[in-house]
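Worked example

This section walks through a single chain of length 501. The input is the sequence exactly as stored; nothing has been trimmed or padded.
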Amino acid sequence: MTDLTRLPAAELAEKIHAREVSSAEVTQAHLDRIGEVDDHVHAFLTVDAEGALAAARAVDSALAGGQAPASPIAGVPLALKDVLTTRGLPTTCGSKTLENWIPPYDATVTRKLREAGVPILGKTNMDEFAMGSSTENSAFGPTHNPWDHARIPGGSGGGSAASLAAFEAPLAIGTDTGGSIRQPGAVTGTVGVKPTYGGVSRYGLVAFSSSLDQAGPCARTVLDAALLHEVIAGHDPLDSTSIDATVPPVVAAAREGMRGDLKGVKVGVVKEFSGEGYQAGVQRSFENAVDQLRALGAEVVEVSCPNFVYALPAYYLIAPSEASSNLARFDAMRYGLRVADDGSHSAEEVMSLTREAGFGPEVKRRIMLGTYALSSGYYDAYYGSAQKVRTLVKRDFDAAFEKVDVLVSPTTPTTAFKIGERVDDPMAMYLADLCTIPANLAGNAAMSVPSGLSDEDGLPVGLQIMAPALADDRLYRVGAAYEVARGSIIDRVPELKGVSA
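Given that input, the structure is written out below as tokens.
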């Protein structure tokens, strides 16, 4: 029998809807896979076998009764990043602060998945409150990259990406504040998409940086990502930043791209995101990808976006500033962790001691950075100036998109680094998101698609594709065409045999 865990989500959906295989069988196969390998990978923080199988059986029952599938991916199981609330199921955000918190409500993304008949296998590991580029900042231990267990799977959504690369799930949801979907996708050989800001509801997404956070699809193929994108996207009155506009036709665009013709598409290579400072194998993979796009019929030109080089420092003022405000809610008074609650401490002391015990080093670092940047006398010099840079970055994008349809760059300057290699060097860690941050600052759509394996270390490399806001479909057309021409690399993941960290 075909190994159900190896099939793309689109193929699984076809088989389930044709009743060639049941959703319960597919879901159980993935639960079995999690049981076999997740001690090695640690992609999941919570596995909800009972809930996933109940949802799968409901899909099977509806299909047996002659009902049409609730969505094109009904019955296909999924892994959900543990930053989106799930009624009756823990939502920890990778933090001791929320270790035992059971939300009383579903995030809009969670609700849409349930309504679409998607069994949720469980909640995936992540950097605490989505702050990190390696999933080493999780309070519950790091996730390991299935390509090399001694290396990171990216972050903050390393658990979601690793679950795909380890064949524990055919689909996953991540969130992307500065690259947390795309960078894990790049280093695990999977597809990750940051939709246009406001294209997917943030209601129930535990906020890190409200003007940057965006949930999006993770998958092993571009078409699978598109199918998931259409399920979770759309206007939500519960989110004031949600865009009231038609969801771009991403599935149709992916299917068009799979025909392998990019004639008439203008591709801009971002001058500032290549060359010095990039791992040689990553640079060569990127150059090969550009040649492949040209061979598919695309017109390729170099584009300069001079303010992109200032995006990283601007981001590390804006995001921590918003985090310092958003994380003030974790005060030990209403929910979450509470320590020193023995009656001998004042409320202020309980708050202070709880936050000291509950937050990890990276979260504390960013809260301090953000609080300082917002403090009296420094607001204009730091936060205000960073917002001006943000405007300049957006203007660079606007100018570029007057000339080209999409922009391309490496997704991240290096392949996956070793666990522990950068934990004591925050600047080196932050550089992992060098290429991904501009799209978050501007609110544009962006995707990472595998561009093969580095000829230096045999590890996955990602090609980043960026499109204007509400032109997400362009990502899928270009990404799918490139994916078909390049061929899949995911079946080259080494068999999991253990962890050496």
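What to look for: Residues 171 and 219 are 5 Å apart (CA to CA).
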